[in-house]
């Protein structure tokens, strides 16, 4: 493999990590609160707001059901507004983030719904405010589940990031398509796939380990 | 032994003339500006008056009246039990006391404050003066024993050192000082409930609510948890209101008992009176599981309410108080020349008093029966004719 190709792969890896990291950070920062709200705003729940719950739920579903590549092109005006351009790595972060928010929200919602409702009642009986219940009970008890949810999010983001080559986003997927496929360079394709596999493996096992450490429900051997 | 390990902040509760700290004070409630003025305080810490609770009709269900005209009170410093079958409404009833449920009508006074009228913010204040323990313990799996007990203190806004100063003596009190850094998954059921009890005591409550606290425990562990509760009641003067479906629990620790059935209180009184002279069918049914209360199957199978020729009358004799240990039976057969057949019986202790039941049968006509019952009544023993066996 020539040094030029190696440099291309290194640069593409950097772009992928850059896009994934920022989209995961912003997506989680917005997705986790949204997930908490979805999990606690149903009828008779902590922050009961059934109408807002249904509305946000519908928006989340709509975003989730739009194929990512369509989302990328559909929100180009918005991307331009936010990033100042609709082309390039920074522009690609916008649709990645938009897709991440509802993804994280639904996974976090599921993790929080796993928390025993008896614990919410217990905290209420102690005189906890709804916010205290969220912080001290729901998020604390759902931490292993949320960790796994975020792990899954990052892994999915690595996959999604391959599609943003369509708007000049760069990254490993883009490199694989342009060099590996269109220029018939199987060694580049192979290298791209290997790097992706290593990335996903690393993220997944780090996430698993973290989740296990947070999970105190299992009796230690 | 207990005194020495007692947390300092609980000590004032031992002296009757000292107002315990941490009591809910509606005039000084940071959160509940809307708290209502206190209503005259009586000798009862909890006073429930004419309370009904209707759960509105759902999509697939009709409206359910869970509670119907409940009057109940829990005197200060007492252990009051509410017993009933599952679905009788006791869970709803106990949740009215700390406002987890709102009554459809009626008043729920806790230390003179009508909990039913308090808004959520005001409730938070009063809830900090009411501890609660649960059937399934409801410990946070992500927190150590220490941190679980610390939770209500964190919620009340206490800081690190103040929290430790309260949690440590409580862990001593419940005998779990050596488990402070363990997680709930590493504890047995009995230990988990002890953590639950320590947690419920953390905010120095004046009232402890117990929601089937021993129902998930084996009999031996149940005993030790009940002993702990009794000790807390006795030594700290803490008022306990508990719900259970087990007469055994009532017998061990309750001073007063109310029997609830289909949302109504069907019988109430001192534990001893209810056990020695149950009147309502539900009470009798609940008592049938207690040793000495149930007849052997071969007797019940033959029992009839009609007297036939050659049949024997089945009589339950209840021994209470000082006569519980008298040789009444031998006198009965000796002085009245009676051929007694013993069908069942048990001697036990209820609310700390000796108590025995004996089921006997003997051939008797009305006159003879009256003679026997008179003989026993003279000696302070109550009797109940259960029927006749051929």
Give the arrangement of secondary structure elements:
The complex is a heterodimer of chains A (221) and B (390).
Chain A: H1 3-40, H2 50-65, H3 68-74, H4 76-83, H5 89-113, H6 117-125, H7 130-141, H8 143-160, H9 172-182, H10 186-214
Helix pairs in contact in A: 1-5, 1-8, 1-9, 2-5, 4-5, 5-8, 6-7, 8-10, 9-10
Chain B: H1 2-5, E1 44-55, E2 64-75, E3 79-83, H2 90-97, E4 105-110, E5 113-114, H3 120-127, E6 130-134, H4 145-155, H5 160-173, H6 189-201, E7 207-211, H7 219-236, E8 239-244, H8 247-253, E9 256-261, E10 264-270, H9 271-276, H10 281-287, H11 297-300, E11 303-304, E12 312-320, H12 328-336, E13 341-350, E14 353-363, H13 366-378, E15 382-389
Parallel strand pairs in B: 3-8, 3-9, 6-7, 7-8
Antiparallel strand pairs in B: 1-2, 1-4, 4-5, 9-10, 11-15, 12-14, 12-15, 13-14
* CATH class designation of the largest domain in chain B: Alpha Beta
Helix and strand sequence of chain B: HEEEHEEHEHHHEHEHEEHHHEEHEEHE
Identify the CATH homologous superfamily of the largest domain in chain B.
Answer: P-loop containing nucleotide triphosphate hydrolases
Largest binding interface between chains? A-B, 24 and 28 residues
CATH architecture of the largest domain in chain B: 3-Layer(aba) Sandwich
Oligomer: heterodimer
The largest pleated sheet of chain B is described as: 6 strands, mixed
Q: How much helical structure, as a percent, in the residues of chain A? A: over 70%
**Structural class by SSE content of chain B:** alpha/beta
- How would you sum up the global shape of chain B? elongated
Mean pLDDT of chain B: 84
Round the Cα radius of gyration of chain B to an integer and report it. 24 Å
Distance between the termini of chain B: 58 Å
Discrete helix count of chain B: 13
Describe the structure.
The complex is a heterodimer of chains A (221) and B (390). The longest helix of chain A has 38 residues, at 3-40. Chain A has helices at residues 3-40, 50-65, 68-74, 76-83, 89-113, 117-125, 130-141, 143-160, 172-182, 186-214. Chain A has 221 residues and is mainly alpha-helical. With 390 residues, chain B is of the alpha/beta class. Chain B has helices spanning 2-5, 90-97, 120-127, 145-155, 160-173, 189-201, 219-236, 247-253, 271-276, 281-287, 297-300, 328-336, 366-378, and strands at residues 44-55, 64-75, 79-83, 105-110, 113-114, 130-134, 207-211, 239-244, 256-261, 264-270, 303-304, 312-320, 341-350, 353-363, 382-389. A 6-stranded mixed β-sheet of chain B has the order 6-7-8-3-9-10, sandwiched between helices. A 5-stranded antiparallel β-sheet of chain B has the order 11-15-12-14-13. Chain B has a 4-stranded antiparallel β-sheet with strand order 2-1-4-5, with helices on one face. In chain B, helix 4 packs across helix 5 (160-173). Classes of the chains: A mainly alpha (221), B alpha/beta (390).
């Amino acid at each position: 493999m020539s040094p030029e190709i190696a440099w291309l792969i290194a640069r593409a890896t950097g772009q992928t990590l850059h896009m994934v990291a920022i989209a995961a950070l912003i997506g989680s920062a917005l997705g986790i609160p949204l997930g908490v709200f979805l999990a606690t705003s149903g009828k008779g729940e902590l922050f009961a707001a059934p109408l807002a719950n249904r509305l946000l739920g519908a928006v989340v579903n709509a975003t989730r059901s739009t194929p990512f590549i369509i989302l990328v092109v559909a929100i180009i005006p918005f991307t331009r507004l936010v990033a100042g351009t609709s082309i390039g790595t920074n522009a690609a972060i916008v649709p990645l983030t938009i897709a991440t928010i509802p993804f994280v929200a639904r996974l976090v919602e599921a993790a929080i719904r796993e928390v025993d409702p008896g614990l919410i009642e217990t905290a209420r009986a102690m005189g906890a405010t709804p916010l205290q219940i969220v912080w001290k009970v729901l998020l604390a008890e759902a931490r292993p589940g949320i960790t796994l949810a975020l792990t899954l999010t990052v892994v999915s983001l690595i996959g999604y990031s391959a599609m943003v080559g369509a708007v000049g986003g760069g990254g490993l997927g883009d490199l694989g398509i342009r060099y590996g496929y269109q220029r018939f360079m199987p060694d580049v394709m192979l290298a791209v796939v290997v790097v992706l596999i290593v990335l996903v493996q690393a993220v997944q096992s780090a996430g698993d380990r973290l989740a296990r450490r947070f999970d105190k429900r299992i009796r230690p051997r | 032994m207990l005194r020495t390990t007692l947390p300092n902040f609980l000590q004032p509760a031992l002296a009757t003339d000292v107002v315990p700290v941490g009591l809910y004070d509606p005039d000084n409630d940071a959160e509940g500006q809307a708290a209502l003025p206190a209503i005259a305080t009586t000798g009862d810490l909890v006073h429930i008056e004419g309370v009904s609770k209707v759960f509105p009709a759902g999509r697939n269900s009709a409206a359910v009246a869970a509670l119907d005209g409940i009057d109940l009170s829990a005197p200060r410093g007492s252990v009051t039990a509410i017993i009933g079958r599952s679905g009788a409404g006791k869970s709803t009833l106990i949740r009215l006391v700390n406002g987890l449920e709102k009554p459809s009508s009626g008043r729920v006074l806790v230390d003179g404050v009508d909990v039913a009228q308090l808004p959520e913010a005001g409730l938070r204040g009063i809830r900090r003066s009411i501890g609660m323990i649960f059937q399934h313990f409801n410990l946070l799996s992500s927190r150590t024993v220490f941190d679980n007990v610390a939770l209500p203190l964190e919620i009340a806004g206490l800081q690190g050192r103040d929290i430790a100063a309260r949690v440590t003596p409580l862990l001593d009190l419940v005998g779990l000082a050596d488990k402070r850094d363990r997680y709930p998954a590493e504890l047995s059921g009995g230990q988990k409930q002890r953590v639950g009890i320590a947690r419920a005591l953390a905010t120095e409550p004046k009232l402890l609510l117990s929601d089937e606290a021993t129902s998930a425990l084996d009999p031996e562990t149940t005993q030790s948890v009940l002993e702990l509760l009794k000790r807390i009641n006795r030594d700290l003067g803490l008022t306990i209101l508990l719900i259970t479906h087990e007469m055994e629990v009532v017998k061990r620790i309750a001073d007063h008992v109310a029997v609830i059935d289909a949302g109504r209180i069907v019988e109430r009184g001192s534990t001893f009176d209810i056990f020695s002279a149950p009147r309502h069918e539900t009470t009798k049914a609940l008592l049938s599981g207690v040793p000495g209360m149930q007849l052997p199957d071969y007797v019940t199978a033959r029992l009839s309410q009609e007297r036939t020729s050659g049949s024997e009358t089945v009589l339950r004799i209840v021994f209470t108080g000082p006569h519980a240990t008298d040789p009444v039976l031998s006198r009965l057969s000796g002085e009245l020349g009676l051929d007694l057949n013993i069908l069942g019986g048990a001697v036990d202790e209820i609310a700390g008093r000796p108590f025995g039941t004996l089921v006997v049968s003997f051939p008797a006509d009305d006159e003879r029966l009256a003679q026997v019952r008179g003989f026993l009544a003279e000696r302070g023993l109550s009797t109940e004719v259960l029927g006749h066996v051929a």
